[in-house]
Fold this protein.
Amino acid sequence: MTLVLEGVSKVVGGRTHIYPTDLTLQNGTMNVLLGPTLSGKTSLMRLMAGLDVPATGRILWHGEDVTGMRVQDRKVAMVYQQFINYPSMSVYDNIASPLRLLGKSSAEIDAAVRKTADLMQLTPMLDRKPLELSGGQQQRCALARALVKDAGLVLLDEPLANLDYKLREELRAEIPKIFEEAGSIFVYATTEPEEALLLGGNTAALWEGRVTQFGPTPDVYRRPVNATTARVFSDPPMNFLQVSKTGNKLMFGDGQSTPATGKLADLADGRYTAGFRPNHLEIIQHSADAMAFTATLAVTEITGSETFVHLDHHGERWVGLIHGVQDLTIGADLPVWLDPAHVYIFAQDGTLVAPAAYALAA
């Protein structure tokens, strides 16, 4: 069983929200839509659900063309960022409500509600009202109401965004287990690369209405096909630096160079763009092969156990993620280190031409 998008696009008032998109989602899979705000995640989900009609292309559900089918006639469930529960109903009745609309018998409803409540760890709360629950329990109730329909397609639009850190972490750990037991196609929208990695499954990276890459989540993270995907799948975004290939060396901006071995050896001489993630930039040399650069410290952000350092490197803005609380001087020159094994090389058009050595070994 599959959901297939063939050349699907969305245009509103002459403005393109989703460019022609091809996607195939398999039954029993978790599929993450990863991208910044306004990248097209919700627009794509609305097309999948049937809430919007595509400007071009068609949508196939188990081989049947459902492009013009109303959302009410599809086996689709959607969970939003906000807690959408009926406050006057008990948790039991909230979960049961879609089954009653479908005309199920009392026995069928009771069995389905109790099975789903057990899956969502809500059994002790079935007699309570939603406002008597914690935030995490309220969102579990909303999820249970979506799952109880036995929908073939479950769409989750940033469902954990309004929860505090502890609740988000709890539900992030539980959700993959829940989905594995449910067996539907799940589509989960998020702006956070870390969330995509925790959820696993497949990831579609979105940027300005385009799916730039789709595949198993670890592969998209380790081997982005272009600089745009690499930027999307990094928080803060990936850093970039202009480099040149000359003979058997890759030359960096501060007179640094590294041997052009492996895939780099096959590159034609010329200019390229090097990319590296913030957590691979260091203020202490940990590798004998690491290259030293000097940058001006613009801003520091202390997050508790880590410090983000915002740097100006000859007009290029870099961000480093450094372990520990660092006492650094704003405006001062700061030596930073970069291991060539963590460097991706992109062509001038942004296409990946050489993945980082560490990614190939993973």
Remarks:
- The longest strand covers residues 15-26.
- The chain has a mean pLDDT of 90.
- Residues 165-182 form the longest helix (18 residues).
- The radius of gyration is 24 Å.
